[in-house]
Amino acid sequence: MKLNHQKALILLYILTIASALVSKFYYGWTAFVTVILGLSAFKFMLVAFQFMEMKKANGFWKFMIIFYLVIFVGAVSVILR
Hints:
Blueprint: H1 5-25, H2 32-51, H3 59-80
Helix pairs in contact: 1-2, 2-3
């Protein structure tokens, strides 16, 4: 099943609300930064692949986006712990 723009937009809304709830209710939780960054990375991938048409791009660019996200989320998570 293909993910159309309406479903992607609804999923983005749900992920935004989830990240807001995580930051509000789990403030004392030590891994909340990693969870919020993970949700944000998933939202970034959803926007890049669905709305920016990166799913039709060369494999190199797909790899670079995912590689950047893994390095960025990992580095920020390690720094902020």
